[in-house]
Amino acid sequence: MRLVLVTRQFWPQNGEAETALVNLGNFLHQADCEIHVLTARWETHWPVHFTFRNFEVTRLAHPSTKGWGQIWYMRRLARWLVSHREEYDAVLVSSGRHDAFSAITSRKQHGRPVLVRFEESGPDGDCRWHAKAPFGEKIRNTVFQADHLIASGEAVYQEMVRHGYPTESTTVVPNGVPVIKKRDPELRSEVRAALSEVHRVLRLSENSPLVLYAGPMRESNRVLDLVSAWPKVLEHHPTAKLWLVGQGEQAAEIWTLVRDLGLRDSVIMVGTFDDLSPVLQATDVFVVPEGRGQPSTFTLTAMGAGVPIVAGEGASSASVTSRQTNMFTFSEGHVDGLAEALLFVLQSGPVVQDRIRRGIQEVERRNSIELMGQRHIHLLKKYLSH
Protein backbone atom coordinates (compact mmCIF):
# COMPACT_ATOMS: atom_id res chain seq x y z
CA MET A 1 0.00 0.00 0.00
CA ARG A 2 1.29 3.45 -0.94
CA LEU A 3 -0.16 6.27 1.16
CA VAL A 4 0.10 10.05 0.93
CA LEU A 5 -0.27 11.78 4.29
CA VAL A 6 -1.35 15.39 3.79
CA THR A 7 -0.71 17.73 6.70
CA ARG A 8 -0.29 21.49 6.67
CA GLN A 9 2.38 21.30 9.39
CA PHE A 10 5.13 18.75 9.85
CA TRP A 11 8.64 18.53 11.25
CA PRO A 12 10.23 20.78 12.55
CA GLN A 13 6.75 21.90 13.64
CA ASN A 14 5.75 19.36 16.25
CA GLY A 15 2.18 19.71 17.50
CA GLU A 16 -0.26 17.11 18.75
CA ALA A 17 -1.74 16.22 15.35
CA GLU A 18 1.73 15.97 13.82
CA THR A 19 2.85 13.66 16.62
CA ALA A 20 -0.18 11.43 16.06
CA LEU A 21 0.60 11.25 12.33
CA VAL A 22 4.24 10.33 13.00
CA ASN A 23 3.11 7.55 15.34
CA LEU A 24 0.69 6.31 12.70
CA GLY A 25 3.23 6.60 9.89
CA ASN A 26 5.83 4.63 11.85
CA PHE A 27 3.37 1.78 12.38
CA LEU A 28 2.23 1.77 8.75
CA HIS A 29 5.83 1.71 7.57
CA GLN A 30 6.51 -1.32 9.75
CA ALA A 31 3.41 -2.90 8.18
CA ASP A 32 5.07 -2.52 4.74
CA CYS A 33 3.25 0.63 3.67
CA GLU A 34 5.11 3.30 1.70
CA ILE A 35 4.52 6.68 3.30
CA HIS A 36 4.89 10.02 1.49
CA VAL A 37 4.19 13.14 3.55
CA LEU A 38 2.90 16.17 1.64
CA THR A 39 3.13 19.41 3.60
CA ALA A 40 3.77 23.15 3.39
CA ARG A 41 7.12 24.86 2.97
CA TRP A 42 6.73 27.70 5.46
CA GLU A 43 10.33 28.93 5.23
CA THR A 44 12.16 29.48 1.94
CA HIS A 45 15.40 27.96 3.32
CA TRP A 46 13.67 24.67 4.13
CA PRO A 47 14.43 21.85 1.65
CA VAL A 48 11.65 20.86 -0.75
CA HIS A 49 12.42 17.11 -0.58
CA PHE A 50 13.94 15.22 2.35
CA THR A 51 13.60 12.02 4.35
CA PHE A 52 12.24 12.12 7.90
CA ARG A 53 12.75 8.85 9.72
CA ASN A 54 11.16 6.39 7.28
CA PHE A 55 9.03 8.88 5.34
CA GLU A 56 9.67 10.68 2.10
CA VAL A 57 8.58 14.30 2.57
CA THR A 58 7.68 16.88 -0.07
CA ARG A 59 7.09 20.49 0.88
CA LEU A 60 4.94 22.68 -1.36
CA ALA A 61 5.58 26.43 -1.42
CA HIS A 62 3.13 28.41 0.70
CA PRO A 63 3.33 32.14 -0.16
CA SER A 64 3.06 34.41 2.86
CA THR A 65 0.54 36.70 1.16
CA LYS A 66 -2.65 36.55 3.19
CA GLY A 67 -5.57 35.06 1.26
CA TRP A 68 -3.76 34.50 -2.02
CA GLY A 69 -1.09 32.41 -0.33
CA GLN A 70 -3.78 30.00 0.84
CA ILE A 71 -5.31 29.79 -2.64
CA TRP A 72 -1.98 29.18 -4.36
CA TYR A 73 -1.09 26.46 -1.88
CA MET A 74 -4.41 24.69 -2.43
CA ARG A 75 -3.85 24.77 -6.17
CA ARG A 76 -0.34 23.37 -5.83
CA LEU A 77 -1.60 20.60 -3.57
CA ALA A 78 -4.32 19.59 -6.04
CA ARG A 79 -1.88 19.67 -8.98
CA TRP A 80 0.63 17.49 -7.10
CA LEU A 81 -2.01 14.88 -6.27
CA VAL A 82 -3.10 14.73 -9.90
CA SER A 83 0.35 14.72 -11.50
CA HIS A 84 1.67 12.04 -9.10
CA ARG A 85 -1.45 9.86 -9.06
CA GLU A 86 0.44 6.81 -10.32
CA GLU A 87 2.77 6.94 -7.32
CA TYR A 88 0.23 6.36 -4.53
CA ASP A 89 -2.94 4.38 -3.75
CA ALA A 90 -4.79 6.52 -1.20
CA VAL A 91 -4.77 9.93 0.50
CA LEU A 92 -5.11 10.54 4.24
CA VAL A 93 -5.62 14.20 5.15
CA SER A 94 -5.04 15.64 8.62
CA SER A 95 -7.87 18.12 9.36
CA GLY A 96 -11.00 18.78 7.36
CA ARG A 97 -10.07 22.23 6.14
CA HIS A 98 -8.43 23.63 2.99
CA ASP A 99 -6.20 20.63 2.33
CA ALA A 100 -9.15 18.23 2.52
CA PHE A 101 -11.07 20.49 0.14
CA SER A 102 -8.22 20.34 -2.42
CA ALA A 103 -7.80 16.58 -2.13
CA ILE A 104 -11.53 15.91 -2.53
CA THR A 105 -12.25 18.38 -5.35
CA SER A 106 -9.33 16.99 -7.37
CA ARG A 107 -10.39 13.37 -6.79
CA LYS A 108 -12.01 13.05 -10.23
CA GLN A 109 -8.59 13.75 -11.74
CA HIS A 110 -6.40 11.67 -9.41
CA GLY A 111 -8.94 8.87 -8.85
CA ARG A 112 -7.73 7.84 -5.40
CA PRO A 113 -9.80 7.43 -2.20
CA VAL A 114 -9.55 10.33 0.25
CA LEU A 115 -9.89 9.80 3.99
CA VAL A 116 -9.99 12.80 6.32
CA ARG A 117 -8.98 12.86 10.00
CA PHE A 118 -10.72 15.24 12.41
CA GLU A 119 -7.99 15.84 14.99
CA GLU A 120 -9.59 17.95 17.71
CA SER A 121 -12.88 18.99 19.28
CA GLY A 122 -13.85 22.27 20.93
CA PRO A 123 -13.07 25.86 19.90
CA ASP A 124 -9.97 24.90 17.90
CA GLY A 125 -11.48 21.86 16.16
CA ASP A 126 -12.70 21.45 12.59
CA CYS A 127 -16.42 21.60 13.40
CA ARG A 128 -16.14 25.05 14.97
CA TRP A 129 -13.81 26.16 12.18
CA HIS A 130 -16.35 25.18 9.53
CA ALA A 131 -18.97 27.26 11.33
CA LYS A 132 -16.95 30.49 11.58
CA ALA A 133 -14.28 30.54 8.85
CA PRO A 134 -14.71 32.28 5.45
CA PHE A 135 -16.07 29.69 3.01
CA GLY A 136 -16.25 27.28 5.96
CA GLU A 137 -19.70 26.00 4.99
CA LYS A 138 -18.58 25.31 1.42
CA ILE A 139 -15.53 23.42 2.65
CA ARG A 140 -17.70 21.53 5.16
CA ASN A 141 -20.09 20.38 2.43
CA THR A 142 -17.14 19.23 0.32
CA VAL A 143 -15.63 17.31 3.25
CA PHE A 144 -18.94 15.45 3.53
CA GLN A 145 -18.00 13.90 0.16
CA ALA A 146 -14.77 12.32 1.44
CA ASP A 147 -14.66 8.55 1.10
CA HIS A 148 -14.44 8.31 4.87
CA LEU A 149 -14.07 10.55 7.92
CA ILE A 150 -11.99 9.54 10.95
CA ALA A 151 -12.60 11.03 14.40
CA SER A 152 -9.52 10.99 16.61
CA GLY A 153 -11.59 10.26 19.70
CA GLU A 154 -15.10 9.92 21.10
CA ALA A 155 -15.40 13.62 21.97
CA VAL A 156 -14.54 14.58 18.38
CA TYR A 157 -17.10 12.08 17.08
CA GLN A 158 -19.86 13.35 19.38
CA GLU A 159 -19.20 16.91 18.24
CA MET A 160 -19.41 15.79 14.61
CA VAL A 161 -22.75 14.11 15.36
CA ARG A 162 -24.12 17.27 17.00
CA HIS A 163 -23.12 19.33 13.97
CA GLY A 164 -24.71 17.00 11.44
CA TYR A 165 -21.69 15.28 9.91
CA PRO A 166 -22.36 11.97 8.10
CA THR A 167 -22.11 9.33 10.81
CA GLU A 168 -22.55 6.46 8.32
CA SER A 169 -19.15 7.29 6.82
CA THR A 170 -17.35 8.21 10.07
CA THR A 171 -15.28 5.94 12.30
CA VAL A 172 -13.75 6.68 15.70
CA VAL A 173 -10.05 5.79 15.76
CA PRO A 174 -8.42 7.05 18.97
CA ASN A 175 -4.88 8.35 18.60
CA GLY A 176 -2.14 5.88 19.48
CA VAL A 177 0.92 6.52 21.65
CA PRO A 178 3.87 4.49 22.96
CA VAL A 179 3.24 2.53 26.15
CA ILE A 180 5.82 1.51 28.75
CA LYS A 181 5.33 -1.06 31.48
CA LYS A 182 7.32 0.68 34.22
CA ARG A 183 9.39 3.84 34.65
CA ASP A 184 13.12 3.37 35.19
CA PRO A 185 14.60 5.56 37.99
CA GLU A 186 18.08 5.23 36.50
CA LEU A 187 16.83 6.43 33.12
CA ARG A 188 15.23 9.42 34.86
CA SER A 189 18.62 10.42 36.22
CA GLU A 190 20.34 9.85 32.88
CA VAL A 191 17.80 11.95 30.97
CA ARG A 192 18.09 14.79 33.49
CA ALA A 193 21.87 14.73 33.16
CA ALA A 194 21.66 14.71 29.36
CA LEU A 195 19.20 17.62 29.31
CA SER A 196 21.48 19.61 31.62
CA GLU A 197 24.31 19.15 29.11
CA VAL A 198 22.18 20.39 26.20
CA HIS A 199 21.65 23.88 27.66
CA ARG A 200 22.09 25.52 31.04
CA VAL A 201 18.40 26.50 31.22
CA LEU A 202 17.51 22.79 31.17
CA ARG A 203 19.62 21.98 34.22
CA LEU A 204 17.77 19.87 36.77
CA SER A 205 18.99 18.61 40.11
CA GLU A 206 18.07 15.07 41.07
CA ASN A 207 15.51 16.20 43.65
CA SER A 208 13.96 19.15 41.81
CA PRO A 209 10.32 18.43 40.86
CA LEU A 210 9.69 18.94 37.13
CA VAL A 211 6.22 19.88 35.95
CA LEU A 212 5.69 19.81 32.18
CA TYR A 213 3.15 21.51 29.92
CA ALA A 214 3.18 20.59 26.23
CA GLY A 215 0.77 22.09 23.74
CA PRO A 216 -0.12 25.27 21.87
CA MET A 217 0.48 28.66 23.48
CA ARG A 218 -3.04 30.01 22.92
CA GLU A 219 -5.76 31.45 25.10
CA SER A 220 -7.99 28.36 25.08
CA ASN A 221 -5.20 26.28 26.64
CA ARG A 222 -5.08 28.49 29.78
CA VAL A 223 -1.31 28.51 30.10
CA LEU A 224 -1.61 31.90 31.86
CA ASP A 225 -3.56 30.14 34.62
CA LEU A 226 -0.71 27.68 35.03
CA VAL A 227 1.90 30.43 35.34
CA SER A 228 -0.32 32.28 37.81
CA ALA A 229 -0.62 29.13 39.96
CA TRP A 230 3.12 28.44 39.99
CA PRO A 231 4.17 30.77 42.86
CA LYS A 232 2.02 28.72 45.25
CA VAL A 233 3.82 25.54 44.16
CA LEU A 234 7.18 27.24 44.77
CA GLU A 235 6.16 28.05 48.34
CA HIS A 236 6.30 24.32 49.10
CA HIS A 237 8.89 23.23 46.50
CA PRO A 238 11.36 26.12 46.02
CA THR A 239 13.54 24.18 43.55
CA ALA A 240 10.66 23.04 41.33
CA LYS A 241 10.79 23.76 37.59
CA LEU A 242 7.93 24.33 35.17
CA TRP A 243 8.75 23.70 31.52
CA LEU A 244 6.42 25.07 28.87
CA VAL A 245 6.82 23.14 25.60
CA GLY A 246 5.17 24.55 22.49
CA GLN A 247 4.60 27.64 20.40
CA GLY A 248 1.71 29.93 19.60
CA GLU A 249 0.27 33.39 19.39
CA GLN A 250 0.12 33.85 23.18
CA ALA A 251 3.80 33.07 23.81
CA ALA A 252 4.81 36.73 24.26
CA GLU A 253 2.00 37.37 26.73
CA ILE A 254 2.94 34.26 28.70
CA TRP A 255 6.58 35.32 28.89
CA THR A 256 5.53 38.79 30.07
CA LEU A 257 3.60 37.23 32.96
CA VAL A 258 6.56 34.98 33.81
CA ARG A 259 8.80 38.05 33.99
CA ASP A 260 6.29 40.18 35.94
CA LEU A 261 5.87 37.45 38.58
CA GLY A 262 9.64 37.04 38.91
CA LEU A 263 9.57 33.43 37.72
CA ARG A 264 12.28 33.48 35.06
CA ASP A 265 14.49 31.08 37.03
CA SER A 266 11.78 28.45 37.55
CA VAL A 267 9.45 28.75 34.52
CA ILE A 268 11.26 27.86 31.30
CA MET A 269 9.81 28.26 27.81
CA VAL A 270 11.80 25.56 26.04
CA GLY A 271 10.32 25.71 22.53
CA THR A 272 9.63 22.26 21.08
CA PHE A 273 11.15 18.78 21.13
CA ASP A 274 11.23 16.39 18.17
CA ASP A 275 10.17 13.61 20.52
CA LEU A 276 8.56 14.23 23.90
CA SER A 277 9.08 10.67 25.18
CA PRO A 278 12.64 11.09 26.55
CA VAL A 279 11.69 14.33 28.33
CA LEU A 280 8.78 12.57 30.00
CA GLN A 281 11.27 10.22 31.67
CA ALA A 282 12.58 13.24 33.59
CA THR A 283 9.10 14.61 34.39
CA ASP A 284 7.23 14.30 37.68
CA VAL A 285 3.85 15.78 36.64
CA PHE A 286 2.26 16.54 33.27
CA VAL A 287 -0.24 19.40 33.47
CA VAL A 288 -3.22 20.26 31.25
CA PRO A 289 -4.61 23.61 32.44
CA GLU A 290 -7.78 23.53 30.32
CA GLY A 291 -10.77 21.20 30.44
CA ARG A 292 -10.74 19.20 27.20
CA GLY A 293 -13.29 16.97 25.57
CA GLN A 294 -10.68 14.22 25.31
CA PRO A 295 -7.02 13.78 26.21
CA SER A 296 -4.58 15.21 23.68
CA THR A 297 -1.86 13.15 22.01
CA PHE A 298 0.70 14.70 24.36
CA THR A 299 -1.45 13.88 27.39
CA LEU A 300 -1.86 10.28 26.28
CA THR A 301 1.88 10.03 25.64
CA ALA A 302 2.56 11.22 29.18
CA MET A 303 -0.01 8.79 30.57
CA GLY A 304 1.50 5.92 28.60
CA ALA A 305 4.93 6.91 29.92
CA GLY A 306 3.73 6.55 33.51
CA VAL A 307 3.58 10.27 34.32
CA PRO A 308 0.68 11.46 36.53
CA ILE A 309 -1.64 14.01 34.93
CA VAL A 310 -3.13 17.14 36.49
CA ALA A 311 -5.95 18.29 34.22
CA GLY A 312 -8.65 20.93 34.16
CA GLU A 313 -12.17 19.62 34.22
CA GLY A 314 -14.90 21.53 32.41
CA ALA A 315 -18.44 20.80 31.32
CA SER A 316 -17.15 19.18 28.11
CA SER A 317 -14.95 16.71 29.95
CA ALA A 318 -17.53 14.19 31.12
CA SER A 319 -16.82 11.82 28.24
CA VAL A 320 -13.19 11.35 29.20
CA THR A 321 -13.09 7.86 30.73
CA SER A 322 -9.38 8.29 31.52
CA ARG A 323 -10.26 10.73 34.28
CA GLN A 324 -10.93 7.67 36.42
CA THR A 325 -7.35 6.47 35.91
CA ASN A 326 -4.28 8.61 36.56
CA MET A 327 -5.73 12.09 36.06
CA PHE A 328 -6.03 14.41 39.04
CA THR A 329 -8.57 17.09 38.18
CA PHE A 330 -9.49 20.60 39.24
CA SER A 331 -12.15 23.05 38.08
CA GLU A 332 -11.00 24.72 34.86
CA GLY A 333 -10.16 28.38 35.45
CA HIS A 334 -9.63 27.90 39.21
CA VAL A 335 -6.01 28.95 39.68
CA ASP A 336 -5.81 27.97 43.37
CA GLY A 337 -7.38 24.61 42.54
CA LEU A 338 -4.71 24.04 39.89
CA ALA A 339 -1.94 24.80 42.38
CA GLU A 340 -3.51 22.52 45.00
CA ALA A 341 -3.82 19.66 42.49
CA LEU A 342 -0.15 20.00 41.54
CA LEU A 343 0.90 20.02 45.19
CA PHE A 344 -1.26 16.98 45.96
CA VAL A 345 0.38 14.93 43.20
CA LEU A 346 3.88 16.02 44.22
CA GLN A 347 3.23 15.01 47.83
CA SER A 348 1.01 11.88 47.60
CA GLY A 349 3.20 8.98 46.51
CA PRO A 350 1.06 5.83 47.08
CA VAL A 351 -2.12 7.30 45.59
CA VAL A 352 -0.19 8.61 42.60
CA GLN A 353 1.50 5.26 41.93
CA ASP A 354 -1.82 3.45 41.92
CA ARG A 355 -3.29 5.95 39.45
CA ILE A 356 -0.22 5.66 37.24
CA ARG A 357 -0.60 1.89 36.94
CA ARG A 358 -4.25 2.23 35.97
CA GLY A 359 -3.42 4.97 33.50
CA ILE A 360 -0.86 2.83 31.68
CA GLN A 361 -3.38 -0.02 31.49
CA GLU A 362 -6.03 2.34 30.09
CA VAL A 363 -3.72 3.66 27.36
CA GLU A 364 -2.59 0.14 26.48
CA ARG A 365 -6.22 -0.94 26.13
CA ARG A 366 -7.56 2.05 24.18
CA ASN A 367 -4.72 4.11 22.75
CA SER A 368 -1.87 1.89 21.64
CA ILE A 369 -0.13 2.71 18.36
CA GLU A 370 -0.88 -0.83 17.19
CA LEU A 371 -4.63 -0.38 17.65
CA MET A 372 -4.61 2.97 15.86
CA GLY A 373 -2.54 1.58 12.99
CA GLN A 374 -4.58 -1.58 12.47
CA ARG A 375 -7.83 0.39 12.33
CA HIS A 376 -6.41 2.73 9.71
CA ILE A 377 -5.16 -0.21 7.66
CA HIS A 378 -8.61 -1.80 7.82
CA LEU A 379 -10.28 1.38 6.55
CA LEU A 380 -7.71 1.93 3.81
CA LYS A 381 -7.99 -1.63 2.54
CA LYS A 382 -11.77 -1.31 2.53
CA TYR A 383 -11.67 1.60 0.08
CA LEU A 384 -8.82 0.21 -1.98
CA SER A 385 -10.86 -2.94 -2.61
CA HIS A 386 -13.77 -0.98 -4.16
Q: Spans with pLDDT under 50 lasting ≥5 residues?
A: 315-324
Order of helices and strands: EHEEEHEHHEHHEHEHEHEHEHEHEEHHH
Which strand order do you get reading across the main beta sheet? Answer: 3-4-2-1-5-6-7-8
The biggest beta sheet reads: 8 strands, mixed
Q: Roughly how many Å apart are the termini?
A: 14 Å
Q: Got a strand count?
A: 14
The average pLDDT score comes to: 91
SS-based structural class? alpha/beta
Total number of helical segments? 15
Task: Describe the structure in your own words.
This protein has 386 residues and is of the alpha/beta class. The protein has helices at 16-30, 68-83, 98-105, 107-110, 126-132, 136-143, 154-162, 185-198, 223-236, 251-260, 277-281, 297-304, 335-347, 349-366, 369-384; strands at residues 2-6, 34-41, 49-52, 55-61, 90-94, 114-118, 148-151, 170-172, 210-214, 241-245, 267-271, 285-291, 309-313, 327-331. The protein has an eight-stranded mixed β-sheet, with helices on both faces. Helix 9 (223-236) packs parallel to helix 10 (251-260). The chain is globular, with a radius of gyration of 21 Å. It starts with a strand and ends with a helix. Residues 315-324 have low confidence and may be disordered.
